[in-house]
Design a protein that fits this description.
This protein is of the alpha/beta class and 162 residues long. The protein is 16% helix and 27% strand. It has a single domain (2-158), classed as Metallo-beta-lactamase, Chain A (4-Layer Sandwich), CATH 3.60.15.10. The strands form 2 sheets. Strands 1-2-3-4-5-6 form a 6-stranded mixed beta sheet, with no helix packed on it. The two termini are 12 Å apart. The protein binds zinc ion (ZN).
Length: 162
């Protein structure tokens, strides 16, 4: 299912378990996360509905490296892929990256205008990511959430949105 967040920002939500995927159309086509493998065909259908093929995606940003977020990364072999490791090389001046360890050590959030893409760090209704998986840290996620509270955004786009 495609939800239009803004003229150039779309949210894809899927039937099977997996993260939401966000498409931001700037001078390039940017995806935030890729969902789980079980949602591959739905993801491709959603892109097609917006007139895009996987090869039209120029940049993929992973909010963290869990299988339900990076499951379809192999579809985007034409894209530059960014995660925690190389995110400082990302050349999208419209984006501000916030490193938010806690759910995983490599969790990041992305601020674009008044939209915060929060991965699995925070969810709607005050929810937050679990910290009992590998690399999780309760203390770190609380620090990260404090940092996010200082950020000025109006629209929250989390990794899971029920
Ligand atoms: Zn996760």
């Amino acid at each position: 299912m495609i939800n239009k967040i803004k003229d150039n920002v779309f949210q894809f939500c899927f039937k099977q378990f997996g993260s939401c995927v966000y498409l931001i159309k700037l001078n390039k086509n940017i995806l935030i996360d890729t969902g789980s493998k079980s949602n591959e065909s739905e993801l491709l259908d959603n892109l097609k509905e917006l007139g895009l093929d996987a090869s039209d995606i120029n940049t993929v940003i992973l909010t963290h490296t869990h299988y339900d977020h990076n499951g379809n990364i192999d579809l985007f072999d034409k894209a530059e892929v960014y995660d925690y490791e190389n995110i400082s090389d990302l050349d999208v001046p419209e984006f501000k990256i916030i490193k938010t360890p806690g759910h995983t050590e490599d969790s990041i959030c992305i601020l674009y205008k008044d939209i915060l893409f929060s991965g699995d760090t925070i969810f709607h209704k005050g929810g937050r990511g679990r910290t009992d998986l590998a690399g999780g840290s309760e203390r770190e996620i609380l620090d990260s959430i404090k940092r996010l509270e200082k950020i000025d955004y109006n629209i929250l786009c989390p990794g899971h949105d029920d």
